[in-house]
Structures are given as structure tokens and as C-alpha cells.
Amino acid sequence: MEAARTQTAQTGVFDRKTVRDIDVRGKRVLVRVDFNVPLGGDGEVAEDTRIREALPTINYLRDEGASVILVTHLGRPQGVEDRFRLDPVGRRLAALLGAQVIKLDETVTEKVTAATRALAPGGVILLENVRFNAGEKEDDPAFARKLSDLAEVFVNDAFGVCHRGHASVVGVARFLPAVAGLLLEKEILTLNRLITDPARPFVTVLGGNKVSDKIGMISRFLDIVDAVVTGGGMCFTFLRAKGYGVGASLLQEEMVPVCVEMMSKADLHDTPFYLPSDVVIARSMDPEAERKVVGADSIPEGWMGLDIGPETTAQFREVIRDAKTIFWNGPMGVFEMEPFAAGTRGVAEEIAACRGTTIVGGGDTDAALRHFGVEEEVSFVSTGGGASLKLLEGTPLPGVEALLPA
């Protein structure tokens, strides 16, 4: 294992030091986790996957005799907002750990410093929402220094924010020995294997709203995959690039020339690039709105595409059925509304039935798996949508680059 980690990530292994490579016994360890979880109407955690995924690193540190200081964000607060306080997260974490979690109401104050100094080996502190501090997103050196002063070692286990140049992601690594947590290592290794050693056929299934978010990954994947399947809101920009009218459907007009280029690249590589042949349309995004199925080249003005149609769903399922490796990012439609859920349901069920390697990235895609009750049927669900896309398009992640090389 030690020798393997010294190789580069391009060979499908991890090239940064991990928490196993550093002595943490008796030390205060600042751990950047990603506990940006949904809260229910009762204010409690509604879905705790991201918390559970961090438990191996937290328990490893506790077992090694470290004092664990957790830092995370929740939501996108504008300053201090009580609805984004981490008290419910602390309660859920304590229940999952079966141990006390000391939830503090601040992030970097003398009171926090005193609490971290008094923390016993094996103890766990959860700092208040790091995005309550203006210096976080700006990567303010003074704020990063205050965070780093709380600990002697920094562990980044928050893959979902590794594409962010924030103080709690990269800033503290300038002041402390910085290594990866077990979840971060697992994410990088799993996703890199898609690039370096996929079993074939390798099919990527893409949906969601914005072509611009995925274009870098599409360009890179066209050199690797055996087929691209495209639905969701982003497909209408590709359909527009084919010269079709898309009515009132979601459209990134400025991306049309890039979509033309991507489809030309697919033709050059002889890579099938599947777009919807039919779509479910409605006059508004409303489950009660009038709706119908039309050809993808026949969307009337004033109507919007909100799901792939039954013919497309059947074709996409057939392509997916033959795959040995699948990467899925983005739902096929507005699956939260039952009239527009059939396409995403069909794709999710087919991917769940695949006996090969099935990797899913993105919070909306994970939510779709849970919505249809098949989350446990896929090989791996990434905790980072934006980070996974950046990694797969070949863009270095600031949060990973900041860690000590192996």
C-alpha cells in the first residue's frame, strides 16, 4: 500500500499523503468535512449520507488517540443565519458515533481555542458553520491562520469542496501538515479508475441543467468512453445545436457552438452520442400543467421539455444494459414531479440493475437514486458533484493540490 501511494494519480492511485501516513497520537487534528446535508421541515437532518461517509476518518483519528476538531459548511448563508447553524448536524453525528460531540457556537474565538485545548484524546468538537465567516470563501490568510491555530495537523476529508479555493480547504494547509482523509482518498481512487482502467463498454449518462458545467468532462470523455447518453435540461442546448427548435425549454444559447463542436468530435471518434428522440413537454413546470409527448424536433413555441419521452427512455435503457462501466451525473427530467419522473426512473433502475461498475456523481443524481429506492444498488455514489466533474475533466483540485505529496 505504501509503495502504491507513491505513484501518480494518473495511474489510478493516490499521490498525496493520507491520514495513515502521519502520526496523530495525542495531537489536535482539524478535519475539513462536508456536512452540507439537507434539513427537514422539523429542522433535523433529513439525509445523512455525507455524515456517514466521514465516519471512517473520524473513527480512525479517535482510535489513534487524536483530538478531533471538525469544520464544515452548511448551505449558502449570507453572514450568520440561525437556519444554517450546525446543531442538528451535531446531534446526528453524535448518534452515529455513539459518542459525545461538543458543538460550539463559533468558529474562531478565544472560547473556541480554549475548548480545543481542553479536548481529550478521542474527543470530538464540531465548530460552527465556517461560512458564517467572511474570510472563508475569500481564503483570507488571517482567517485561515486562526483556523490552523486550533490544531497541529490538518486532514481534508471533504471531497465535495476540493474544487473550492476556500480558507478551510486550502488556506489552513499553508500553516499545518496537510493530508487526505479516507473518504477523499476513496473518491479520488474510484473516479480516477474511470479514466485509467474502465471495463468496457464504458457509457456515460449525463443530465441536469447546465451544459457549461459538464462540457470539459464531455470533451475528455469522448477520448475514452464507448457511448454518451444525454438527457435532462442540458440536452436542449444540444438539440438546438442540431438545428431543432426547443420552445421554452432550458437553453444555454452561448453554448450552442460548443455543443456543435462536441458532436463533431463524437463523430470523429465514431462514438455514439445519444440525444432524446422524444420528450415530455408542458406549458409550465407544474405537475398539474397540460402535457404531452412529442418528437424532440417538434417542440412547439411556449412549451418546455421536462423529461425524456418513453421512446428515448427505452433506447437509453438498452444502451445502459450492455455497459460494463457507467458514470451517471444528472437526472433526465424534473423527477421530483411524478408526471416528469419516468425518464429518470427508467435510467436509475437500469443503472441499478447493471452488474458492472456503476458510479454516480452529483447531489441531484444521488437524490434521484434515493427517490426511486435504488441507492444501495450502485457501486459508488460520489459525495461531490462539482468536484467530481472537475476531476474527471482533468482540472487539478485546489484542495488536493494543497496536501503533502506522497
- Ends: how far apart? 12 Å
Overall SS class: alpha/beta
Query: How many distinct domains?
Result: 2
Per the principal axes of the C-alpha atoms, what is the gross shape?
elongated
Per CATH, the superfamily of the largest domain is Phosphoglycerate kinase, N-terminal domain
The total count of strands amounts to: 15
Strand order of the largest sheet: 3-4-2-1-5-6
Named CATH architecture of the largest domain: 3-Layer(aba) Sandwich
Percent helix range: 25-40%
CATH class category name of the largest domain: Alpha Beta
What is the CATH topology assignment of the largest domain? Rossmann fold
Radius of gyration: 22 Å
Extract low-pLDDT stretches: 1-11
Q: Kindly estimate the percentage of residues that lie in beta strands according to DSSP.
A: 5-15%
Mean pLDDT, rounded to whole units?
A: 94
* Separate helix tally: 16
Largest sheet: 6 strands, parallel
Structure report:
The protein has two domains: 2-183, Rossmann fold (3-Layer(aba) Sandwich), CATH 3.40.50; 191-392, Phosphoglycerate kinase, N-terminal domain (Rossmann fold). The chain has 16 helices and 15 strands. It has helices at residues 2-5, 49-63, 87-97, 110-118, 134-137, 141-148, 167-171, 182-196, 211-221, 235-241, 256-268, 310-321, 342-353, 363-371, 385-392, 398-401, and strands at residues 28-32, 67-71, 102-103, 124-126, 153-156, 178-180, 202-206, 227-230, 273-274, 278-282, 291-295, 304-308, 325-329, 357-360, 380-381. Strand 14 (357-360), helix 14 (363-371) and strand 15 form a beta-alpha-beta unit. The strands form three sheets. The chain has a six-stranded parallel β-sheet, sandwiched between helices.
